[in-house]
Amino acid sequence: MANGIDMFVMVLYLAVLATIGFASIRSVKNHRDFLIAGSRLGYGLYVPAMAAVVLGGASTLGGSGLGYTYGISGMWLVVMIGLGIIGMGLLFSKQLSRANVYSVSELLGKRFGAGSRAISAVVMAVYDLMVCVTGIIAMGIILSTLFGFDDTTAIIVGGCIVLLYTVLGGMWAVTLTDVIQFWVMTVGLICLLLPIGLYHAGGVGGLLEKVDPSYLSITNLGASRIFSYFLLYFFGMMIGQDIWQRAFTAKNESVLTKGTIFAGIYCIIYAVSGALIGMTASVLMPGLADPQQAIPQLAMKYLPAGLFGLVLAAVASAVMSTASGTIMASATVIVNDLYLPYAKKAYSDKEKLNMTRLVLLAAGAAAILIAAWLKNIVVALDVAYALLSGSVFIPILAAFFWKRVTARVALLSMTVSSIVVIADLIIEGLSSLNAIVLGVAASGITMLIGTWLFAPNPVDDKASL
Prior knowledge:
Low-confidence stretches: 458-464
Shape: globular
Helix content: over 70%
Largest sheet: none
Number of helices: 18
Structural class: mainly alpha
Number of domains: 1
Number of strands: 0
CATH topology: Sodium/glucose cotransporter
């Protein structure tokens, strides 16, 4: 447990986030406000919010832990996240700004029909729910460290805080809290912990002299592991519903394109900073049983009371920003793509808003229960990205850039690849990276053969986006 000052800093921070949720209720005037903040964000809000939603507990604790173990090469996990965000800005920004949709699945439905919309919506809902689970688990770890709660209690408390401000204020509350979380992360980790740690290690020169020479190699992590991060995060960042839903909040194409690229560049800076923090901790505190404790242990030993609480708040910020964005995305897909298209009645805008809040509450409760049961960040994250990248990436590329792909071929491609991914996870285990490779290969091969066998049919197919 931390001291009283650090506890007070964290409690005050969490209270501010909850207050924002209550205050944001007045800004939510319709369903569009709740889902995508009325598409009115400029650079000042959009860039930090986009960066915050993709930098979670795995990026922060995991990235510094890799730095502790492998040196500067530990940056690759978060670098791939940043490159994926930059890739989305370069490849998809023009199409996204003109799509006039709320979700990835809705876009696929416009291009390939109802079947593709439904199956991709199931994949997206599961993906975002599982990523939210990882955030809630990580939040539980932080609260357990700070307040001494048992794991289950800490997970429930942390999950309820995230759920509170998200249900109340929707995407507008998520945006405001993400912006605050971005600056807390930046100040706490990059501006405070990194330079203070380097100072105690003898500066950059002292650090370079004291670390093992292998820590200065950018490939020390291993080519196969770097490639696995490429498969998991580069593709996943470009097509995730939580990322796209944040993109839809931009007020115009310029903000979406440039702002997304700026956010990706920040992620790369964050990646290098996290690896350096881990390297610094390896010099100052060698022999940690858990490398992912590099940030908390470094902060606890070298920061005064209050600043330690701020750094833990920074880690919590990274975790909560991802959890709120992904649970929002999961609820959006469930309502927008799995219920409303099949509803027997037309709903008013207010009814849609209330329905989304209820589904968000239910999905959040499910995520908290899964987190309390699973308590394993790595397993949840691997399953999420395997399903997403393995079964949806190729159809999304086809929706934008391959006019000859028909609706039936796209549906077949998603069905086959989903089966392949799930089968591999069952056979090889939930942490199998082969699931993504096999899923993408199955999706691409099915699409190539299907496009060759079945010519485009104007009645069956939609216009290219």
